[in-house]
């Protein structure tokens, strides 16, 4: 397992570390997807995964003692807050999704990315070849003004 992050100040740090774990193939079999938001961490798990399994994995991924049960059955992942020594956390929710024979479909979502285990798997090259072995390259971004056109012209 890769080392836990040095600091976890916000949901962005959580998102980044989970993406790093996914690309390194360091996800448990029961974890399907993870979505970090400003107000919580949503985990999609296989049916039958217990909250205790989720807690144990988060503690190993983010460092021992990174999670706590708060307000009854609510699980929270600890954030580093230099303003206080009290526990400051982000709520962790999980929802179960049964696995189908075809695996877990990747549904297009209206956000930049969803962290899934497939990040560690290379994409298969297209089977069909273009005329004269022409290669295709795509330039994409959700945001405008990031340099797609400049980079496309430079590559061409």
As residue ranges, the low-confidence spans are none
The count of DSSP E runs of length 2 or more, i.e. the number of strands, is 6
Task: Count up the helices.
Answer: 3
The radius of gyration computed from the alpha-carbon positions, rounded to a whole number of angstroms, is 19 Å
Mean pLDDT: 83
Strand order of the largest sheet: 3-4-5-2-1-6
SSE series: HEEHEEEEH
Which sheet architecture does the biggest sheet show? 6 strands, mixed
| Distance, first to last CA | 41 Å
Binned strand content: 15-25%
Shape descriptor: globular
Structural class: alpha+beta
- Helix-residue proportion: 10-25%
Describe the protein.
By secondary structure, this protein is α+β, with helices and mostly antiparallel strands. The protein has helices at residues 11-23, 51-62, 148-155, and strands at 31-37, 40-46, 67-70, 74-79, 88-97, 115-116. A 6-stranded mixed sheet has the order 3-4-5-2-1-6. It is globular and about 65 Å long. The protein starts with 10 loop residues before the first helix and ends with a helix.
